[in-house]
Every structure is written in C-alpha cells, then in structure tokens.
Amino acid sequence: FKISAVNVDLQTDATLQVDISDALSERDKVKFTVHTKSTLPNFKQNEFSVVRQHEEFIWLHDSFVENEEYAGFIIPPAPPRPDFDASREKLQKLGEGEGSMTKEEFTKMKQELEAEYLAIFKKTVAMHEVFLCRVAAHPVLRKDLNFHVFLEYNQDLSVRGKNKKEKLEDFFKNVVKSADGVIVAGVKDVDDFFEHEKTFLLEYHNRVKDASAKSDRMIRSHKSAADDINRIASTLYTLGTQDSTDMCKFFLKVSELFEKTRKIEARVAADEDLKLADLLKYYLRESQAAKDLLYRRGRALVDYENANKALDKARAKNKDVLQAETTQQVCCQKFEKISESAKQELIDFKTRRVAAFRKNLVELAELELKHAKVNFIPCWKDFNLFKTRNITSINVVL
Amino acid sequence: MTAWEPPDRPRSRLAYCCPEKMAEDREPPPLADAVQTDFREVEEGEDLFVSTVSTAEQLSPTSPEPASFPAEDISTNSNGPKQEILLDDDQEDLFAEATEEVSLDSPEREPILSDGPSPAITPVTPTVIITPRVDALFDRSLDEDEEAEENGDTFDMQITVSDPEKVGDGMNAYMAYKVTTKTSLSLFSRNEFSVKRRFSDFLGLHSKLASKYMHIGYIVPPAPEKSIVGMTKVKVGKEDLSSAEFVEKRRSALERYLMRTVNHPALVKDPDVIQFLENTELPRAVSTQALSGAGILRMVNKAADAVNKMTIKMNESDAWFEEKQQQFENLDIQLRKLHASVESLVCHRKELSVNTASFAKSAAMLGNSEDHTALSRALSQLAEVEEKIDQLHHEQAYADFYLFSELLGDYVRLITAVKGVFDQRMKTWSKWQDAQVMLQRKREAEAKLQYANKPDKLQQAKDEIKEWEAKVQQGERDFEQISKNIRREVERFEKQRVKDFKVVIIKYLESLVHTQQQLIKYWEAFLPEAKAIA
C-alpha cells in the first residue's frame, strides 16, 4: 500500500527508506509490516521487515516527545488510532437487515460497505507510513536508537497501551501544560520571527481545525447523497423489470445511469476525503506539533529569564551565586539550542506545508475533472443516443 | 496577502427560467437549452417526447448535432412567453422546514376553518421562488385524442396558476391564486381569461368531479393535499422562507392538477370545470371542510367502502382486470419507495449545499491566515470554487425536488385514484349481483303466491319482478359500461404516464449533466491557480 495522503518528497534519501509494505486487519487490531532499506552501518542487514502494531508507533512517538534532546524539533505527529468501529457496525447492521431487502440490493450495499472498509484501511496504513517517513527524513530523529529498535527488532516490543492510571496522569499533564502554555504564550518574544510564528500558528491551527471539521461534514453529506442515488437506481431497476409498457427498457437504462452516477459520486467523495480532508487533518496535527515546539521554546525562555533574575538576586545577596550561575548557563544553553533548531524546523514546516497543499489541491482538481469529464459525460452521451433512438412509439399492452 | 470575503451576493434560486429577469451575476443553467440543443430533429408523431419538449420551449440557435452538449451557457433564451417568473431576493437557505408537512396518505386531512366573511384583500409582495415549468408534461400537440379530433379542435389549452396573494388576516386568512386560461377550444367563451381562486375552490371542484365520474370509471386526477401546518404558518403571517416555499409548492401542484384535469377529454367539457375556469365568482365550497355535514358523510362513506372492499369477493372473469390490478399494486409500491428515496436525496443534497457553503467560508478564513502568498491565494480560490459548487448543489436539489419528487408524489396519488376506480367497478359488480339475488327472491316469492289466493299481492309480486329484472339489466349494463370505461381510461393513463415519466426524467437527467458541466468549468478555472503555488 503505497498511498500516501501527505506524501511530500520524503523518499529522496537512499540511505534510509522506510515504508509499510503490507498490513493485516484482524479482529481488533491492525498489523503493519514495516519494511526498511538502508545503507547505514547501524543496521545488521540492508533490507529487512518487522511487524508492528499501532501501540508501538505511539510508544515511539512518545519517546521522542519525552526526550529533552529533541525539544527543539517539531515532533512528527503520531498517526491516529485505526478506527473501524463505525464501518464494522454498518456491516453488522446490514447483515441483520438482510432479510428485508432484495438480493441485488443486499449485494450492492455489501460491496459498498466493503469498499468503505477498505478505504479506511488504506488510509490508516498511509498515515502510519507518513509518520515513519517523516522520522526517517529528519536529520537527527532518524538516528534515534528507539527508532532503530522499532525498525529492526523482530520481536514484539512488549509495549502495552497506557492503562487507566497512566491515561489519567496524561490527562492531568495536559491540563497543566495548557495552563502553562497560556502563561508562556503571554510572554512577548524579543525575536520577531518567533513572535510572528506564535501568532500565526495559533490562528492557523484554529482555522485548520475548523476547515477540517467542515470538510468532513461536507464529504459525509456527499456520501449520503450517493447512497440515496444507489437506492433510486435499485428501485428504478425493479420498476424496469415490472413494467408492462414501453417504459421498461427506459427504466432499466435510467437505472443503469443512476448506478454509474452513484459510483462516480462515491468516488468523488472518496477523493475529496483523501486529498482535502486528510490533508487538513494532517496539518491540524502538524500545526499542533509546531505549537508544542514553540511552547517548549517559550518555556525555556521563561526558565532562562527566571534564571537570570535568580542570578541577579543571588549576586545582590551574594548567596549561592555559583549555583545560580550554573543554572543560568544551563538554561541559556537549552534555550539557545532550542531556538536555533526551532527556526529551521519552522521554516521547513512552511516549505512542507506549501508543497503538500500544492500537490493535493492540484490532484484534487485533476480528479474532480477526471470524474466529470472522463466518467460522467461519456456515459451520458451514450444515454443520449439511446434516447433519440429508442423512444419512438408507445406500445401499451392491452 | 489577499483577503477574501465571501460575497454577499443575492442567492438566486433561478434554475430554469427567463434569464433576463434574473439577478445580475448569475448565469442561468441552460437546462432548457440543453434540452433544445440536443433534439433539433423533430419528426412529427414519431419521437413523442422530443417534439413535446421542443414545442413547449422556444427553440434557440442551435448546433446541429443531436448528441452534443452545449459547451457554453446560452444565457439569453427565453423559456416561452407563458411563463410567470417570480424573482428571488436576498434569502438564506430556503429549506429550513419546508417539505415535511404534506403527507402522501389520506387526501382528506382538513383544517378546521371557520366560515367568517372574507375581509378586504391585502396584496402581499409574493416571496419568490422559481420552479421549472412543467409545460412540457402537458403539451398535447401530438396526442392522438379521438374526441378532440372529432370536435375538430386541436387540443390547445394552457393553464397557469400564479400570483399567490394573501387575503385577510389571522386564522381566517387564505391564499388566493390567479388562474389564467389560454385556449382556442370552442368550449370556452373567450380565448384568454383569468379568475381568482382559493385552495378550497380546487378541492370543491375535485369533489364534484369525483362524485360525478368516479363511479362510471373515469380516473379523476386527485387534488393537491391539504396541509394544516403549512397553511397555518402562512395565515399567521410568517413571512419566512419555509412558508414561501410552501406556497410555491402548492402553486405548482395546483397548476399540475388543473392541467391534468383539462387533459381528460370528458372532464374538460364538464360544466363545473368550465365554470371553475371562467366564472369570476364561485360559490364557496364549504363541503370540503372537515366538520361540515358533507365532510362527516364522506368520512362515514369511506369507512363503509373500506369494509365493503374486504367483504366483496368478486368473480373476476376478465383476466385483463386482474392483471392490471396487480400491476398497479406493484407500481404503487415501487413508486412510493422511489419517492421516499428521492425525498431523501433532496434532503441530503440540501445538506450538502449548506455544508459546502460552510466549508467555503472556512477555507477562506484559512487562506486569510496562511502566510505564504501563493498558497493563500489558492486557498481563497478554492473557497470561491466551493461556494459556487454549493450554489450548484442547491439548484440541483431544487431540480431533484420539483422535477422528480413532485412527479412521483403526483403519481402515487394518481394511482390511488386508479385503484379507487377499480374498486368502483367491484361495487358496480356487487350491485348487479345483489340485484340478481333480489330478482331471484322476488321470483321465488311470486311462485309461492301462485298457490295462495291473493290476486292483488300476486300482481304486486309480478310488478316487483319486472322492476328487478330492469334493475338487473341496468346493473349488467352499468358493469359493462364501467369496465369499458376503465379499459379506455387505463390505456389513456398508461400513455400519459409513459410520456410524463420520460419527459420529466430526461429533463432531470439533463439537469444532472448540466451540473457536471458547471463543475468542470469551475475546477478547470481552479487548476492553474493550484499549479501556480510556488
């Protein structure tokens, strides 16, 4: 599955190439086959594969977040959990309602739901792959030991999902962090670049969130409309088979057209989902990661300024001066280190973002055109011919 | 960074009507044009629906190829002079609660109106919605109608219902509609005339026609349904969009009703129909109200009919009738299903339109905050495209509704009328059988009286026998007549059904094509913008 929703020039480096070559969907989990090709000396072989589950991706992501060394980077956002619940529920409901619909209807709906399931599956694979590719493309993160273990260790990493207590701890940590984030954000930055980025990211993140939600709703309506067209096509088909007048051929042909229309509409919705909705969702997560970076820098700045004040105080009182100096230097180094890499990270973020949007918007427009021009119009030309040819006299059976 | 604000353009609902009267910045989707450009070759009598369409709509300058689609919008064609256009001003989404109020079931849900004096007419600026003309449905220029030809008249009759006006205030208020007839039939005293009618007048007309003709087997087109909720809103003076849409829906339905009625060769000659169309004043049809004597009597009759239907077991000697009844039964089921699906489609398309508009705004905001200039511009363009698309969906939903959904609704009701006519035949048969039974009884009674010595009673019995023999004969004649009528009516109905469906469905499909063509235009305009992001 090489479908990458936010595929941005991440495969250029031959020294380390990562992809998900296969995936298996089991009852309540998905098993990803992570395939690595590398010329780096760190690995025992040049090409190898391991099987990983979602929790192991999360473990890797969290290990980056918790690593102080990486505080100055935009940590690639973790892939969302594979969610087949809705799809499974629909398939189940369909199975229960089997008795109440005709065989054709049932087969059609089943095919549709299976296609939906497959689409969700492909998407989740793509998202996990993008995460790995981002890590592999990052000059520092790609050297991370945990990452190498993740790629190479062919046993189960024995990573369990967080239990209730840990989830609760996380929750509180997040609350504290957001509160702190507000304070930190309030501190004016001397550096114009970062001040601008702060303002920009805040607004951008909120708007991406809004756009993402709205695009989801729009696509859902589109899918519902396609479902209705499906039902209409079925009923027209039945009418065609039952009708005693000359209409029967007409109905059957129209039914066929509606069926084709439905397929096209469903594909359009699916493409919009992939090119637009997924793009927005991804950048929602990335912009959050960028905000997190700014927060960390802001935190470091505050710590640095506090350390300065403490040092001044210590010097004034001539008490614990050495300790204060050490603290101040540590804070200073931390801050400067973060600042330096943060600047580059944010510039790269912009570049990536622009490229991703460009690629997806172009592809979206091209697909929309393809569906309308190549798929839709020709089958209607065919209908036109049918129309003028067949509807001549009306033979009513008496 | 270019800031883009969603334009506050008037949202015109115009889909299929005279462009010159439209709000400035909208191009009319050339629905009518699409129809015209495709079917240039009009062969009289042969391709029924083709000629139907082209005579109903004005022909426009065309390309000769029948199988081509117009690439450009031909925006200056009129759809025919008979069209009444109501223009739409600035309005938000019309579809708040519009269509749920009218149900398909009993057409006799009647609001309880009090019979007060009608106050002065308060002309109200009609809120404005445009619906596609359904002239094409009723063009009979090629219909082989024997009776019309016998009269030497070519059937030429056009009825429009327009200018809904609210008369009166509060709960006594009602909507008055202008009914304009244009005809060359000799049945009417003038060629063009119009009258004012209210909804209960239409119901009254239907009621009279039904009582006159249903029992001899004529399929009388059913009148549009009452809607308590819809009318109440209008009465209360709620000038909002859902009530505007309700009025428009009703207006359109009334028009279709009248056209169907006059298309019936016998009904058009009926004095009640002529009076309805011509007379300035019409006696108020009070018997259409729920709590009137007539209303209650109707309800009782209906219940009695339902019981009878269950008890009459008819010996069907005629396979045709059995087959037809089954066919109509099946058709009924499928049409109801189809109608439900189409209604659902209308609903979802409206939703899609709203959600697309909402997304467009959101994309514009995103474009505003994006600090990369080219990307920001592209996002703004995307927002514009999506806004146009939402408008497209909106118009398409309109087509879905007015073309497809309403047609299906009409036919579901028509089929109920057809089934009613079959039931009448059963009743007639039953009456005939009952008369035969009575005759037999009378003969037996007479035979008994032969042996008793009561000469006057014997004479009475003989008289009764004669009476019942006549009734039996009449019953048989009635039954044969109604059977004959029904056969003819069904044939006519099927012809009309085929025509209606073909015309409307093709028009509808063409609206779908048009939508796609517009989509192509929009996305083609956007693509270079997206590519220009550097």
UniProtKB/TrEMBL annotation, chain A:
* Gene3D superfamilies membership: Arfaptin homology (AH) domain/BAR domain (1.20.1270.60), Phox-like domain (3.30.1520.10)
The record's GO CC annotations read: cytosol; endosome
InterPro entries tied to this protein: AH/BAR_dom_sf (IPR027267), PX_dom (IPR001683), PX_dom_sf (IPR036871), SNX5/SNX6/SNX32 (IPR014637), Vps5_C (IPR015404)
Please name the GO terms of the biological process aspect recorded for this protein, alphabetically.
Answer: protein transport; retrograde transport, endosome to Golgi
User: Listed GO molecular functions?
Assistant: phosphatidylinositol binding
What domain of life does the UniProt record list for this protein's source?
Eukaryota
Q: Which Pfam families match?
A: PX, Vps5
Q: Which residues form the PX domain?
A: 1-157
Q: Which UniProt keywords apply?
A: Protein transport, Transport
This molecule's function is given as: Involved in several stages of intracellular trafficking.
Q: Which family does it belong to?
A: Belongs to the sorting nexin family.
- Its name, as the record gives it, is Sorting nexin
Q: Which gene encodes it?
A: SNX6
UniProtKB/TrEMBL annotation, chain B:
A GO cellular-component term linked to this record: lamellipodium
Family recorded in the similarity comment:
Belongs to the sorting nexin family.
Q: Looking at the record, which segments are called Disordered?
A: 54-84, 100-124
Localization, per the record, is: Cell projection, Lamellipodium; Early endosome membrane
Write down the Pfam families for this protein, in alphabetical order. Answer: PX, Sorting_nexin, Vps5
What main location does UniProt list? other
Q: Which CDD domains match?
A: BAR_SNX2 (cd07664)
- UniProt keyword terms in alphabetical order: Acetylation, Cell projection, Coiled coil, Endosome, Lipid-binding, Membrane, Phosphoprotein, Protein transport, Transport
Question: Is the keyword Transcription in the record?
Answer: no
Protein name from the UniProt record: Sorting nexin-2
Keyword Protein transport tagged: yes
Mind telling me which SUPFAM superfamilies this protein's record contains?
PX domain
Identify the coding gene. Answer: SNX2
Q: Which residues form the PX domain?
A: 155-284
The UniProt entry's GO biological process terms, in alphabetical order, are:
early endosome to Golgi transport; intracellular protein transport
Q: Which GO terms describe its molecular function?
A: phosphatidylinositol binding
Described function = Involved in several stages of intracellular trafficking. Interacts with membranes containing phosphatidylinositol 3-phosphate (PtdIns(3P)) or phosphatidylinositol 3,5-bisphosphate (PtdIns(3,5)P2). Acts in part as component of the retromer membrane-deforming SNX-BAR subcomplex. The SNX-BAR retromer mediates retrograde transport of cargo proteins from endosomes to the trans-Golgi network (TGN) and is involved in endosome-to-plasma membrane transport for cargo protein recycling.
Coiled-coil spans in chain: 451-496
Record-linked InterPro entries:
AH/BAR_dom_sf (IPR027267), PX_dom (IPR001683), PX_dom_sf (IPR036871), Sorting_nexin_N (IPR005329), Vps5_C (IPR015404)
Q: How does it sit in the membrane?
A: Peripheral membrane protein
Which SMART domains did the record assign?
PX
